[in-house]
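Put briefly, the fold is written as integer tokens. One such record reads:
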Amino acid sequence: MKSQNWLIRMRVCVLTLLIYVIIPNIPSVNSITPPGRYSHNANLINSKIYFLGGVDERDKLLDDFFFLDVSGGTNFDDFSFQNFLVDMENPGISWGTTVTAQESIIYLYGGLKTNSNGDWQLANHSYSIDVINSALWTEKEIPLDSGPKGRRSMTSIVDKAGIIYVFGGSNQTIDGETRGNYDTTMYKLNSVTGLWSQAPLRTLGIDNTTLPGFDYSATMLGDGKIIYIGGQLANGVYLDMNKVWSYNTLNDQWTLNQVGGEEISSRAAHSAVLALAILDTTTWTWSKPLITNPSMTRHAHTATLYKNYMIVAFGAHQQNLDSVIISNNFISILDTSNGTFKWVPSLYQSTGPNNSTSNNVTSASTNNSNERLGIIVGASAAGFVGFSILVASCVLLYRHLDQKRQLNKAMIEGHSGMTEVVRV
């Protein structure tokens, strides 16, 4: 009778161990570790950020399509990348532009791709995919009489009516000998009808050769104006950060705004300087807030605003202008709540022995070990060996999971590159 009780207790212990230790912590089979990249695209739909394309530090084109689920809020240890599986080949595009319209459709235009010989060429087609209702890419040829010709390094914006605005961009390929040129036409794509159109150029007599060319950033404000910041022209001149162009989508009017406040150096593909700048579009002034936990600069990254967090993903960095480009797969998170700006590794990384989560885990492990010891003593040799193997497996699994968490932490570390936060 006593031996049966011991066996029952052991079975209960093993079952409890399986339920509370092993099963909840089995890593997802869909979890991936994407390679480092820059000049990729990112789109937020619901609580998932979808990433597409880009190139690595060897200028190898990447054609993967995956997402990061950020619905966990500040529980960044649970962040993991997962492939978005489609029933056809993904369009391998870098330096293109994407935008989300009609809630769940990602539109991709422009950029560079490689042909069958491995040579770079400008993409003259548009692509779209509905990530909620289908898993198929739709490819359409862009009409040359109303749509933009092949371009790269521009940003597209969509308004509340589903009209997509595409401006500028360069026609230079990677191995091109010239810097190329850019188009000063504002192109519009109606995401409902699929029709392209061109807006008239209205600059109130201001020299339109200073309009943003490529490698700029673009942000839609609540009043229907698009703010274009930074970038460069075809001759390699960087635009003055104290002169910011805005485009009114209601009347197709361009306006050049003189910006005061802090001095912000000119830049493109923002950025390679250790700073974060805020543009107040009410007073048209720049400011540089104090940033907590600064670490690595980067450029050609993406920045996605989710609730109070700006999530900066991937990008490239250089030690200096003459050094090689190094791509990375880091995810950095900026907390913009309460009027403060803080990179937030403290929210998901252990801060030392006083960390409450670490203490709870250690305490629970100690108590469970004591209880198991009372059950194991007096058991048969075969039962002891079997249980020891199970415990050893749990330890190995825990170590594997701990290594996975450490990898996630390394991929979500602090960032301090130049990215605009437009205050409206």
Notes: The first strand starts at residue 31 and ends at 32. Residues 217 and 229 are 5 Å apart (CA to CA).
